[in-house]
Design a protein that fits this description.
The protein is α/β, with parallel strands linked by helices. Helices cover 32% and strands 22% of the residues. The chain starts with a strand and ends with a helix.
């Protein structure tokens, strides 16, 4: 399963649209308001997960490191 996580500001939405036009967007999309620091809490990864992140808040680095360190 593929997850896409992006904030709901112009940068995040435009990134997702551009990616979708180029590669398609099948999968789970998780978005929030601008600078949503708990955005990655809504991602439920497993070992088969592919995760794409766009324009996430710097406070989410702990969450993104946890996901990366779980070998996803």
């Amino acid at each position: 399963m593929r997850w896409y996580a992006y904030n709901g500001d112009a940068d995040g939405i435009c990134s997702m649209v551009q990616w979708g036009l180029a590669y398609g967007i099948e999968g789970h999309r998780v978005t929030g308001v601008k600078r949503d620091i708990e955005l990655l809490e809504r991602v439920n990864p497993n070992p088969m997960t592919k995760l794409s992140l766009w324009t996430f808040h710097w406070r989410e680095t702990t969450l993104s490191h946890r996901i990366v360190n779980s070998r996803i």
